[in-house]
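User: I'm curious whether this sequence folds into something compact or stays loose and floppy. Could you predict its structure so I can see for myself?
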Amino acid sequence: MSRSNDRHDPDGTRLPIKLDSTSNGEFEPIPLGKPELLANELAQEAATKNAKRLGQTRRKFLVSSCGAASTLLAFNAAQAAMGRTGGLFALAEDAAMEPEAADAVLAGNEFIFDVQGHFVNPTGAWLNNVPEDARPLSGMPAAGCARGVGDEPRSYLKCLGPDAFVQDVFMDSDTDVMVLSFVPSTREGEPLTIEEAAAAREIVAQLEGTHRLILHGRVNPNQEGDVGDMQRLRDDFGIQAWKTYTQWGPDGEGFFLTDEDTGVPFMEEAKRLDVPVIAIHKGIPFGQQSYQHSLCTDVGPAANAYPDVSLLIYHSGLIPGQPEGPYDPERGEGIDSLVQTVIEHDLKGKNVYAELGSTWRFLMRDPDSAAHALGKMLLHIGEDNILWGTDSIWYGSPQDQIQAFRAFQISEEFQQRYGYPALTPQIKQKILGLNALKPYRIEQDVLRHHLGGDEVEIARANYRREADPHFLTNGPKTRRDFLNLMKWTGGERV
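Assistant: Here's the prediction. I'll summarize afterward.
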């Protein structure tokens, strides 16, 4: 490992808080608007000015906590200039120059349990269906690292594999535990099979990173063979939760959790196998044909019918591109769809959880929407039922999402006007990790193990003496990137 922290970006052109159009591959990228473009412009200007004041190179400044603080403060200035004052990154101005002030907010020691992570296996069986002369995923920025140097035509794919995943998640971020999840696909076209996911877990285990990587088992109950395969997934791979997409199906049609021929048998089997945790993709519609299945109307009835099964609502029902406001029972979509079903079925604080993967990443660009989204979740779903997720490594290392969340606060104006609670350190600790311990049935001794320092923690501490984060995102950034990704990973989500 290089001991230089400027190998990836020697000129310091990349900001540590990544504000760009990247999507997680499930929705078409949404270009940045004027506030976001101004935010990046002001952050770049501040980096040059503050690095010069401290007598540092831009790169050295940007990899420091002051670099992250300076970027977030510039974002505040840009959003305020555009009239967005409902949320803000609560940092003292001197945090841009004083490491202690920056660390006081950005260098937390919370237990961080990320319940949604991904990688696409770069050498998996899915490549068997790709033409020999094709270069799938080569457009991703990360597909050009030192690992990818070689004579083979697809050597670059090593830059996107499990070693890169471990680097981004466990070295360049404060994440303690990550759940490796799955994308929707046919059984023959999985970009990541359960066998390959288990191999990634072994890489972490070899570092004596006990309990650090948890596996989902992908189940689409409207696809022949998936429900019947659940026992094998549990017995052979020790999966600790199930992942499903209600708006996906092999024929383009989704399903409801309450459907007698699909959703009900799936939930019955999860209960029978004593793995009563189901991560359910909601929001982010996959087109009009299955739009109704992206809504959360079936969540409340299913949760009441199966009170011993935890339903983790991935993306919290978010529809990217639609701004979030205060809860509106007439809206019937987006996060309001989830809030509505929780209210109507009296589920606050019970077995329905709102998950923030891609949701927080997208809302970071709009502090007013972020304040409304988090505020109404806290009010109506409950502070114990919001789970941290980042959807990385589509968004590169999740560290910038962690730092931004640590700093974020709902403005006093919004708290008074809408009755939203403040994001206290205690609430943030719950969201970032502690809340996930209950549905995943993880004991406190596991928590103490991580905080006590295992081999992964020791390796991370050594690496950070001269850390070299790349500050890149991996997912599609344009419509063309998005369509190419669909082409190589199954295409059913277009």
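Summary: Residues 140 and 405 are 26 Å apart (CA to CA). The longest strand covers residues 213-218.
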